[in-house]
Amino acid sequence: MPFVSRDESGRISAVSLDAEPGFEACERDDPQLVSFLRGLQGSGGGFEQSDMRLVRVLEDLIDLLIARDVVRFTDFPDAAQEKLLERRSMRHVIGALHLLDGSDEVF
User: Fold this and answer.
1) What is the layout of strands, in order, in the sheet containing 3-6?
2) Tens of pLDDT along the chain (107 residues)?
3) Which domain does 67 fall in, by range?
4) What 3-state class would DSSP assign to 63?
5) pTM of the entire structure?
6) Are residues 92 and 52 in the same domain?
């Protein structure tokens, strides 16, 4: 069960998985909690944006581990191999079109 802290007007201002001083228990399906969490996802520095940047880091890490023979491509399950090949192909096409400028923008 999550715990929430509320501001002076009663709106949720923070969420915790632990019971902290000043926090109260809240049901997971509470409409205010759902709205608060959706707001975090939709903000400029939200989870989705961060996840997309992290995916690129993980792809590069996997390529590096394969290049250094720490892990073999065939060690990954078939579904993972397909996804990695698909992403490599997509990144290659984007790079060939010179659309990447080194920024962290997500396409």
Assistant:
1) 12-16, 3-6, 24-25
2) 889 999 999 999 999 988 899 999 998 888 898 888 877 655 555 667 777 888 889 999 999 999 999 999 999 999 999 999 988 887 776 665 544 455 545 44
3) 47-96
4) helix
5) 0.48
6) yes
